[in-house]
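## Example record

The block below lists the input lines for one assembly entry, exactly as stored, with component labels intact.
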Amino acid sequence: MWTWHSVAAVPLNVRFCYQEGIREQHPGTASSSVGHRASPFATNNGLPYYLHLYRGQARGPPTSAPPPVSAPQQYNQYSHSQGDMQNGPPPMTQAPPRPAAAQSYNQGHMNMTGPHPSYPQHYGPPPTMQQVTSQMTGMQITSGPPTPAGPGYAPPHSSQPPISTYSAPPQPSYTQAPPPASSAPTQPPPPGVPAASQQYYGVPPLPSQQPFDSSRPPTSQQQFTSSAPPPPSQQTFPPSSFSGPPTRPQAAPVSQPQPPFSAAPPSLSSAPPPGSQPGFAGGPPPIAQGSFPPQLTPPSSQPGSFPPPGPPPTSAASGQYPPMSQPQQPPAAQPSPYHSGPPPPRAQMPPTSMGQSNHLPPGPQGPLGQQGPPGPLQQPPVQPGMQTGYPPQQNGAFGQARSPQPGYAGPYPGQPNYGAPAPAPTAAPAPQKRLDPDAIPSPIQVIEDDKAKSNEPFTTGVRGQAPPLVTTNFQVKDQGNASPRFIRCTAYNMPCTSDMAKQSQVPLAAVIKPLATLPPDEAPPYVVDHGETGPIRCNRCKAYMCPYMQFIEGGRRFQCGFCSCVTEVPPHYFQHLDHTGKRVDCYDRPELSLGSYEYLATVDYCKNNKLPQPPAFIFLIDVSYNAVKSGMVSIICNELKSLLDLLPRQNPEVDSVIRVGFVTYNKVLHFYNVKSTLAQPQMLVVSDVSDMFVPLLDGFLVNVNESRQVIESLLDQIPEMFADTRETETVFGPVIQAGLEALKAADCAGKLFVFHTSLPIAEAPGKLKNREDKKLIGTDKEKTLFQPQVGVYNNLAKECVAQGCCVDLFLFPNQYVDVATLGVVPVSTGGSIYKYTYFQAQTDQERFLNDLRRDVQKQVGFDAVMRVRTSTGIRATDFFGSFYMNNTTDVELAGLDCDKAITVEFKHDDKLSEETGALMQCAVLYTSCSGQRRLRIHNMAVNCCAQLADLYRNCETDTIINYFAKYAFRGVANNPTKAVRDTLVNQCAQILACYRKNCASPSSAGQLILPECMKLLPVYLNCVMKSDVLLPGADVSLDDRAYLKQLIGCMDVAETHVFFYPRLLPVMKLESGSLPVAVRDSEERLSKGGVYLMETGLHLFLWVGASVQQELLLNIFGTPSFSQIDPNMISLPVLDNPFSQRLREVVDSFRAQRSRYMKLMVVKQEDRAELTFRHFLVEDKSASGGASYVDFLCHMHKEIRQLLS
Amino acid sequence: MSTYQEFIQQNEDRDGVRFSWNLWPSSRLEATRLVVPVSCLFTPLKERPNLPPVQYEPVMCSRANCKAVLNPLCQVDFKAKIWACNFCFQRNPFPPSYAGISEVNQPAELMPQFSTIEYIVQRGPSAPLIFLYVVDTCLEEEDLQALKESLQMSLSLLPPNALVGLITFGRMVQVHELTCEGIAKSYVFRGTKDLSSKQIQEMLGLMKPAAPGQQSRPVAPQEAAASCRFLQPVHRVDMNLTDLLGELQRDPWPVPQGKRPLRSTGVALSVAVGLLEGAFPNTGARVMLFIGGPPTQGPGMVVGDELKTPIRSWHDIQKDNARHLKKATKYYEALANRSAVNGHSIDIYACALDQTGLLEMKCLSNLTGGHIVMGDSFNTSLFKQTFQRVFSKDYNGDFRMAFGGNLEVKTSRELKVCGAIGPCVSLHSKGSSVSENEMGIGGTNQWKLCSLDPSTTLGVYFEVVNQHNAPVPQGGRGAIQFVTQYQHSNTQRRIRVTTIARNWADAQSQIQHIESSFDQEAAAVLMARLGVFRAESEEGPDVLRWLDRQLIRLCQKFGQFNKDDPTSFRLSESLSLYPQFMFHLRRSPFLQVFNNSPDESSYYRHHFVREDLTQSLIMIQPILYSYSFHGPPEPVLLDSSSILPDRILLMDSFFQLVIYHGETIAQWRKAGYQEMPEYENFKQLLQAPLDDAQEILQTRFPMPRYIDTEHGGSQARFLLSKVNPSQTHNNLYAWGQETGAPILTDDVSLQVFMDHLKKLAVSSSA
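Predicted structure tokens for the full assembly:
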């Protein structure tokens, strides 16, 4: 784990902590009051919002900080100009030193903790200083909580202390303003502290703050005064204060001309952002851009590293700037000033060496920053000054940074959002201090770190070992546990007792994707045949034979690992044991040596004790006016002709045995007889929709090859037949009923592909009315909108499940169609919903066809029942996903395809033992696409722990988020959305508070301490909270929300991860073979001269900066002019140049990774479409009122503090 | 007497009327004492090659509740241009177009020979005929193939402008759209759901949502267009339909072991009726139902699909053990009534070895004038020929079918109408001439005959209401006018008017005259119809008892005997055959259900109540011809004594045509003598009955079952069951060895029957 003591000096987060915030506002009182509470640092900052990365002891070192101070001054100046907050992150500088000590430490730990050779290895080779540091810190932290950490940390502590001292003084100043000022001081620490601070990586923020504080003292007073008084004075001040530094004079002048600019910074944090942007952009661009581009790559990595180093905020800022351009924005963190300062230097620096260079600069920046920050942060006036002073630098960095800032500015006001969506930016103007975004945990950093350490195949043999992240490419070797591609757990160390579990509030869940597709280099599960008697199972709990079964008595019996019951080994299965007690044939039998495998099921496992028929696919196509007009009908019919050759099959050599049938419908249903002996297809119209039935049996479901001619003739004719239709009404319930009846009649399982356009208002069962009512949003009645309108579909779903009838729904709505109701059957039957709003053949055809192709071709099992068995002591209690449950244990899936994941939550009903760990076995009984009845078994063993610290050391945040998202989204149908959100925040806070309380070494309450493996929990959780489902924007329809809700419901971890935290890739430079490092989802990270590719799993954007080089544009679009780029293009032009090729390759590879085709949207900067794009910049404040990452983190900190106090 | 026979014959030829009495007793009391009511058999569309229709409309009495048509019996004042209605005595002026009439220039309707006259009405649009095939697909492959061929063939027989439609059914009901190219389209209905006519039309898309404001005009064409999808002119969809029929598959739903196929006959008919009802009310239409088994599901279900539960038998019905009977019957009756209201007729062509539920469905045809044809298989000539004959044409090249008939009976004051028996439904027209005393379908003087052909014959029953103390003026005549409006097969609307008159006679003083005016053939048929009509609703024995009682009373009334002396009993010539008819009627399948399934009974009765007198008599008492070397073929007694070894017998019972080779003949034939040139005469003898049979087969509708059998053959039972069992195993030795063949039965013979009749007739206690 990493001790992430991110200490961020949050200005006055009035919203957050009322008490503190208020106190601090008043310079005099604030300082004192704050002082009591928190560690010196905290007090210094005035705000408890620092994220103290380190353990309490770390503070010692702070003293070292001073040294840097000298350098910092310059920094400060820089920082002044821009803003400030970023000081926080700078601590990075410290990081470098840490590595050494920390590493050793960590390694030790790692070894200590357990058998994770791989991990140590990863860590071992500290690629870059930053990474190392971060890792180190992480390590330490993890260790920290436990006793072992203590010693290791000792050094860091010492380092920190100094910081604290630092901070103390500045805080007061900080609070009011001038984090910038303070930042300056902080910077100093970095240089001096570096070594120490690094260790505390987590701490860095603190140091940064502290530095600020310290720095402030000097300037702070001025600032204070200025700040307190009206802004104008401040403005003047800033110059004056700035004037101190050499740059000031310049700044001053500039500042005036750029009043907006100055205003901007504040605005950034607060409301007025717009004005600021232009100013910033204008000024800085030249320099910043120039510097940035080169930096960009480094920056990304840097930022991550930086944050940890917190202490050298300045440095961090610089580092970040280059890449992200955000540094400035972090205003809250005060880095901005720094950045501004640093940027110039940094900009150059970064290119050279990511980590160190960045760090180094911070030092110098620090000082500058200090001056700058104060102004911008608290008082507008200051900023102007700063800017003026640093215009050039800032421009570069800020220009970009600022645009995002506006978003940030919001955040604060947004905070209230946590509670209630509507932010009321009352106090907005005054407090604008922020954490430096670079100072807070960076997902990108974590992802990159994980990638870096996952070089070797992941072997599953070791119990309780957390697999690499979902973002990492790795190979899996099954050595007894299921691959993480099949099962991922939230915690690989389960608490032994329910008390522990309750205390920690960490959800115990597993995300199971039973039929997941494996990469070609991994063997699919072996098929085991135990003969006529079927699979061998425990007599009591019926668990299937697996590696956890202990053979005893010479192999004549085996003891169940789950329930301990002893069962006779049937004679035909007997085998001798070797000296270790293992069966001799252990490695010959997949079920004894592997985590995942399949059994051939016997007739006992079949419905009605009859071997199943091959499944059938039925295509049900809406042919009402809208469907025909949009071109949907002809597209489908045309595509089906070729698609039917690609039906899934088990053996690629053999033709698929799946039979197909066709139905079209509007107000009535048309069935088609496509029997091979017919000269032409026959259409059978059923208008009795109130009591649906299937009008024919023979000839409806046919083998594609036999009836090819008739089918083609039919598909040719369907579009013609309905070309002139004027029927606008449709039915829906009867459509599914029809498919169901057809399968019933054929006595087989199967899948319905329903292509539907509109709200079913025709008189029939399942008739719906439009109930979309914006007024209900946010009220207690909102939840009813997520519940089905009528009960018909629930009953239908039940019948479908009983028959093994899976329903995939393709929607092409032009208006409200009530996805919440229409989706009931697909969701209950393990089907999928696809939605193409305002479908137009030209633009959406590709996406639809790709989805359709994939959906038709993908491997799927039918009539499935999944059961999760566990060791005595825990029990699977709750399930999330697309399925139906008749009782509390059996998950029934009419269909289960390779993209569907089911999240299973476990609860204790007894104690677990550390020795045996916790076992789970997921058995899925299903009918394969060739009609074979099979059992797929996934086994998973995790450790159990009696210490909370162990639990926190071995969690997987992505999985937790997956669970949270599903839990929350399911909740909106039963609870007010606000309550759901509150619950989420609350649980998350409890998790972190529990850690803080029980695992982290004591430290000031002002420190936010996050467990290493959960350091991204806040940012991800914020993304969940901001999702359209939980916090809808004005333009988000109810259908969209319902659609997302069900979509998330069956996502696996990788999908939820990218969905909630989109991948944003700079693609200015592309190398073959590797992808550029992603950047964080924030506008600050976007360079105006850059081109970025963003994928969310559902969307794919290509963002083009306004001042992209012509050459790049030529390469990508074939046009040198930004204005000539067609924002409506649906695919990139095919150009014959390496860059274009590579970019398209990348796009294709992205698409290939996702279960749904992502339509490419080209977004030009400042274009209208950018709004949509911005929505996915999840670290920024969202238009719908969602908090920015920084704000949320602060909020979370407050929550935690409340829990702790 | 010959005069009466000639008179009767002449009347029948001219007017298609046979009265039971040709002199009418002048008072109610006397009339009731005659036992056999004043009644007639009337054949509305009797073929009259010598009767060209007139091209103008009839002149009608201006009295609102009379509206009798001007006829030869009316008194005409040529000078005043006024005529007096002979029914209500209203004096009516001639219409302007009759200005030129005079004694020497009379319109046809005033000439005595035009007591029957046909008018062509020019009013109203002429609607095309409609033929809607409703086809069961739960058939054996062979049957279905034959049926498909027959149907395809029939397309060429239809009038080119006639509309055709196709509904097929099995487990589901499919209404086929006929206009689509490239893809065969049909609407499917679930076979188990009873749908209202409105629902059916909605589901077929025939109902356009009535947009307020603009219904009347635009709807009509739309509706026509919509329904056109299902009903198309033959000439236009000829090919399509032929292909469609060709591709017709057997019902694809699997029939598990031990089950009957699921047949949704009820729903299919309901859809057919609903379709026509909505699209073509009051237009001539024929729904032709082809079934190969009983309805096994849904409304109208006759038997469940479990083979282990057999279809109801008379035994079950008597024991009240037929659980679907009442419900199904009610269902079909309702359908039949709906159909009748709209003037559409329903034919049933049932071809199966087992019963098909005709008992329940018979009303469909009985009420709408449709045909019922029963056979063993669609792959028999019986069906094929019969079906072909449905589309036979008359001397003018017109189809022998008419639609939407409306028969109105007007009577002079002394008479009232009691009812009618035949393929018709009451129109509930209560006029002054309607009697309260109902016989057959009564309570009205108008009936609807949705479909009728030249042989369709109704029995019409009257009541003399003249009171005993109000003597009819001497020489007065009673008059009856039949006005039949119908749609000719060439789509013309026509009206045929038949006016007849009979003299009144005082029963006390002129009983001999009345007796001699008795038409025993007509009377037998009319009484038989009454009996059959009763049998539909009463227990068999009750009907027989009623018949016997009527017979005894008649004998008492007209027989000459000494009290209590059976041997003295005599009947006059005009009544001599009547008891024999009654004897055979008692034994006929119309009243005896023994040895007949309910379906067969229904089938026989259906035909009995619609055929003309000759055919009806054949049904009551089959004709037996004898062929031998002894002379030309001769009719012989329908008696076991006629069965001789050296004779070939040809029996025509209307439904069966039996050729029976006597023992010797059969041996000869077996020996192959007919092949030898020297026995050419034998060959001719063998051929003679075949030729005669062929003649009958050619004309009879439905085509009779043709049976060629011989002495001792199993099929000989058809003959043996019909002949009078004068020789049985009981009296064989008493009756001499050499003649006839004994019948193994306990039935009474005619002799015994007559003995009893005499005894009872003369009994003073009776």
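DSSP finds 49 helices and 29 strands in chain A. Residues 1-432 of chain A have pLDDT under 50 and may be disordered.
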